[in-house]
Amino acid sequence: MKVIIKELPEKYNFIDEERIHSILVNTKPDKIKIREILEKSKAKNRLTLEEAATLLNNEDPDVWEEIYAAARYVKEIVYGNRLVLFAPLYIGSKCVNGCLYCGFSIDNPHAIRMTLTKEELIKEVEALEDMGHKRLILVYGEHPEYNGERIAEDVRTVYSVKKGKGEIRRVNINAAPMDVENYKLVHEAGIGTWQIFQETYHRETYKKMHPKGPKSNYLWRLTGLDRAMEAGIDDVGIGVLFGLYNYKFEVLALLQHTEHLEKEFGVGPHTISFPRLNPAFGALTETPYKVSDEQLKHIIAVLRLSVPYTGLILTAREPAHLRRELFKLGVSQTDGGTSIEMKGYSKMRERKKADQELDKEQFKINDVRSLDEVIYEAVLDGYIPSFCTSCYRAGRTGEHFMEYSIPGFIHNFCTPNAILTFLEYLLDYASEKTKEVGFKLIDKEIEKLKEVNPKIYNVLLKKVEEVKNGKRDVYF
Ligand code: SAM
Ligand code: SF4
């Protein structure tokens, strides 16, 4: 079914640029005020745009340390020490847009254009299952071929692949905005989150960065997730490509987008992503708005404090040492063993390490470690790597997900499910060194639960035995 793209009237715009600029100019980073705001967010309250701006405008490094400490605290009380793992899977590099920053741009004559055939897709999924992955995000360029039917068919194929004890239990999508009818087709195939990054919410910059193709339609993209929600997809992910425009403006715009979704649909975005502009083949990489490592820390900490219940996604665009530091500030999901090359995972078996070939990829990534290496380091840092997909499959999504997360249900469901899925990983896929540290972590976490929730603890012990005896996909 062809996607019908519309020019929308201005009333659809919910980003108030003037208000954002005025808040940023008029908000002073008063220390006493900042401490009040930190107390408010430590009580798990959402922040207003003004409050988020007060934090963003702070220039005192000691006060930033206080803000980071509050972000770490909020992460711990809302999410515990879990880190959810996924892998991106690039399905199609054909694209009709001319995004200046992207290697898939129609204006890049060197890009290798291809779409995975069903057989190639199966091979990629098998390779991902052999690594231990359970959650994928399928990524597409924007092209008439990649309509609802095609994406739904890919989703069904992914779910059908079972290799050894492996299976994919949650498929998310990062593709162009659709119309409601096309979204419905994908929704029926059973997806988790649909992600669309606005790239920049600043209209003038958006226009410059997207000179041609359907993506040049700012309002069509801005309202893309409203249509997804209308089609019944109640888990949606928003994001900004940091480096295109002023990062403080973009953070406040992300919050305005969040408020819009909450107002219209009673539920905010499931996740927020904050990719930074990385080098891409033949594309723009230098801009006046480059975000430094320190500024990226500011962005993550302020988002963590502003929207305590929204998942924050950090990807392999960032180097390993920095990811380690950023996880602590509030990241809840990350990728591991990543390849963004077309047919990259099946090839990785041959080359072991993911050396990049930029003409086949959208941009450069900075962390090419295997999933096992990412997990090993995460365990050393005290995280429970989680492959949990239970909320989505038990109907705890969208509005319901909020009900569960707000009164602290996350600890009752997520921690035990993280333990169970990590145990599966250790038994089926982990290296010896990861097993060694991993089993110890699991024992420690189970003991912790004994104190916190004896009822769940007893059920968990039974479920752990089931997994050890070979049963898979056991969850709360
Ligand atoms: N083509 C679809 C779209 O544009 O919405 C699908 C997503 S695209 C393949 C995934 C995301 O990668 C984009 O939304 C953009 O934020 C990000 N991206 C593009 N070029 C990038 C670059 N040079 N560095 C880092 N991220 C980039
Ligand atoms: Fe195409 Fe997406 Fe790249 Fe833009 S960012 S050129 S739409 S793949």
Description:
- This protein is an alpha/beta fold and about 475 residues long.
- It folds into 2 domains: about 300 residues, TIM Barrel; about 60 residues, no CATH class.
- It is built from 20 helices and 11 strands.
- A hairpin with a 2-residue loop joins strand 3 and strand 4.
- Helix 2 packs parallel to helix 4, helix 18 packs antiparallel against helix 19 and helix 19 packs antiparallel against helix 20.
- The model has no long low-confidence stretch (mean pLDDT about 95).
- The structure holds S-adenosylmethionine (SAM) and iron/sulfur cluster (SF4).
- S-adenosylmethionine (SAM) binds next to strand 2.
List segments where confidence is low: pLDDT < 50 over at least 5 consecutive residues. Answer: none
Give a quick account of the main beta sheet: strands, pairing sense, barrel closure.
8 strands, parallel, barrel
Strand content: 5-15%
Physical arrangement of strands within the biggest beta sheet: 1-2-5-6-7-8-9-10
Shape: globular
* Number of E-type strands: 11
Oligomer: single chain
Give the number of helices: 20
The average pLDDT score comes to 93
CATH fold-level assignment of the largest domain: TIM Barrel
